[in-house]
Amino acid sequence: MPIVSKTRRQTDYNLFPPSVPIVIDNGASYFRIGWAGETEPRIVFRNIVQRPRHKATGETVTIVGDQGPAMMKFFDCTRSGPRSAFDSNVVYQFEIMEYILDFAFDRLGASGSAIDHPILITECVGNPVYSRSKMAELLFETYGVPSVAFGVDAVFSYKYNQRHGKCQKDGIVICPGFTTTHTIPFVDGEPVYKGSCRTNIGGYHVTDYLKQLLSLKYPFHSSIFTWEKAEELKLEHCYIAPDYVSEARKFQEGTKEAEEKTRYWQLPWIPPPIEVPPSEEEIARKAAIREKQGQRLREMAEAKRSSKINEMENELHSLHFLVKQLDQVEEDDIPSFLSDTGYASRQELESTVSKVTQALRKARGEPKDETDEFEENNDSNEKYPLINVPDNMLTPEQIKDKKKQLFLKTTTEGRLRARQKRNEEELEKERRNQLEEERRRENPEFYLEEMRAQYKEVLERVEQKKRLKTNGSNTNGNQKSGNVGRGERLSAAKRERMRLLTTAAFDRGKGEDTFGAKDEDWQLYKLMSKDHDEDDERPDSDEAELARLSSRLQEIDPTFELKAEGEPGQASGEAPRVRPLTEEDYKIVIGVERFRCPEILFHPNLVGIDQVGLDEMAGASIRRLPHDDKELEERLTSSILMTGGCSLVPGLKERLECGIRMIRPCGSTINVVQAKDPVLDAWRGASAFAADLNFLGNAFTKKDYYEKGEEWLRRYQIGYNTL
């Protein structure tokens, strides 16, 4: 399985003899590995694994640690996100742990099938025996290490700082880590695990809380607030407030101090193009262009109409000439003459002449005369000969044909009437448009103002109808819009149906149920099933008029903008239109979030974790000690060491001193110090411990692991006095 990484491979692995141990700080956030006796780890990377597919080859690769966007763009990461081997601070996914160890040993320079160096690996306080057993089994069986030792990272950090005079033999170490926080008391230089305390809060929760707050504050930029970006903002801007309530009040009141503590992050923003309203010359020029285009279209339509009339006149002239020739042909030669011209009979030829004549008159705009109507009636009688014949004079087959002819005639006449009505409407529309065009040419400004006033009036009527349809009549003055009962939303027809149902139910409750015994009772179903909603369902004339006015205004007024949904004046219940983003929307303001997010270290209930904070954990560790010694408690509180990544947050030392002083007797000595390097001191302490000659006495071999059993492994712990 190919491994992708930006970490360079070490080349001096073979220069170290097998007696030199390998030191591993297996943290939930970062993995550090190096050689015993050195002051810096050789390899440091994020303790995560990702297994995406390459976009070009489709091959699954293993990516350990963080990789830059320049490399990740070649992989499809939609189905494989970053995964950790940890559940909180306990290793439980040993398949992922194997990928991480493979990568770590490879980057360290190991090339053989086995690791011939002793291993010292860190773990959390109270690590379950199952996790410790699986880790030892993985190191022994997969990598063939000769011996293994487990130690607590916070203890290594405390002992390392003790050697450098930062803390005393008696003291407390507070380690706010990535996902958990631990406190361990030390008595005579040895950790007392019975007095240790743990809460499930750490740097991960601070970062995630900051990410959530910013995503809720700026929902349109939620894709920018990735976990890595939130981590960067936390390290740069977050701090612990000495007094959370007073600090929050400053930001609420908007004091000058709060303004000074506010940070701004400007995202890239490109201003939208400014729409300049057209000038009068531009409006006049566009109107002239539209007038010219309209005149050209009218000329084209007139030319097309004239051409069509000429074609129809020529066709009619040819048909009349053909009829004259037919009159001169002898009776015996008529069938052959008609077959040569493409007509079956004289009647068909005359019918064609009649149709072409009617079409020509229609194209010219001439009204129908009585002769045309008489001819149409004759054609109808010829086409449907059985309609006017009584049924008693027809056979059963002819009666069936008569019904078919009656149906066809009715349908045809209905289509003709509908077509005639459409033609009349089009003529009326054209006549009205011509009148409006004449009015516009006489006084364009007055005509435009009149059209705008009509549009505004019709628009108000349409919106009023929508509001009434949505919210009801609101006849009750105490009832506000949008808060109406079901009866007020019903139409008149629906309210009538509801009244009928209510009346029927009321009558049934008076006594014996006799509904349906009389024929009149069934009239209720007819009334209820009758469609009374024709008025509600038919097209609204105001909406049609509004569409006509909108279309007309768009033609003659370049500055006219059609009112969109969501603008003022829209019917209630419609979704508002999203406003365009401005430069202020791209300015990220980080104010109260700076101290609100790390405050969860002292008040985990802010994120729904019902546990104590850092200051109360120190008091709980002191109370858990097996003996009640006031002098010992005094010595413990006078040497409190902060280690771990979260201890780098500014203001943590002062806030922790203040919190512990509140739970200790008056006059107690409280001294909180920060580790020399809260991030790397755990590995450095482990490196110093592994470099001691007595280290192998604290490690156990594969034989010890299988012979002594699980109970011995549960009680196993190394002695830290060598540090």
Automatic annotation (TrEMBL):
Q: Which GO terms describe its biological process?
A: actin filament-based process; regulation of DNA-templated transcription
Location, primary (coarse class): nucleus
The protein's matches in InterPro entries, at most eight in alphabetical order, are given as:
Actin (IPR004000), ATPase_NBD (IPR043129)
One GO cellular component term of this record is: cytoplasm
Q: Where in the cell is it found?
A: Nucleus
Q: Does the keyword Nucleus apply?
A: yes
Q: Indicate, by first and last residue, each region the UniProt record lists as having compositional bias (Basic and acidic residues).
A: 412-441
Instruction: Point to the regions of Acidic residues compositional bias.
Output: 369-379
UniProt xrefs under CDD domains: ASKHA_NBD_Arp5
Chain intervals with Polar residues compositional bias? 470-482
The segment annotated Disordered runs over 361-389, 410-441, 466-490
Recite the UniProt keywords alphabetically.
Answer: Nucleus
Family of the protein in this entry: Belongs to the actin family. ARP5 subfamily.
This protein's name: Actin-related protein 5
